[in-house]
Amino acid sequence: MMNIQKLYEIKNVNVLVYGDFMIDKYINGNVNRISPEAPVPVIEIVEKKSKLGGAGNVINNIIALGANVRVLGYIGDDADGNFLLKSFNKTQVETTYMKKYKEIQTISKTRIVSKNQQFLRLDEERMEEPPKDYYEFLKENKNKIFQSISSLVISDYKKGAVNKKISQFLIREANQRNIPIIVDPKGTDYSKYNGATVCTPNVKEMSLVIGKDLKK
Fold first, then answer.
1. Which pLDDT tens digit goes with each residue over 42-75?
2. Between the chain's N and C termini, which has fewer beta carbons within 10 Å?
């Protein structure tokens, strides 16, 4: 039987989320003709919308459960980065430790859709290592970052934020404070998640790691 009291207590849970943050954009429209310039459909735009993607989607799920979130990471000092921060602030996510960098481009994925059919996806991203001073920022602020935290979630989308150095630093700091660590993994190098409490690969991701199709 479900313990209802546990559901009420979730409002006291503070989750620290680190990972790859991005925006999912959608351009919806109607197709009524083919372009005279090339054999491609002409989409007449009806609606444009944006929402949190990547680790931001993880945060949306945590907020929906009723827990509190402190976001940890970095984004570009650009329009998409500002959208991310405003979206977090609307849901009362703590953004004190989200850093903005002019040299970073906030990742976005734009899907062009008509009648639920996706025609094209445009990815704006540069997969690169975190800014050089970011690791030092984490070390200098680690006590404040982990203050009052109940659990750590590392959301890896293999865009560069979750490298071995930073991942191991966060896992080590969480373990020293007896904070459970949940990792949403990506890729085949799980050594960077060493020390985590639990990893949550899906069947496809696990198949890649062990080199065997688990669906068979």
1. 999 999 999 999 999 999 999 998 999 999 999 9
2. N
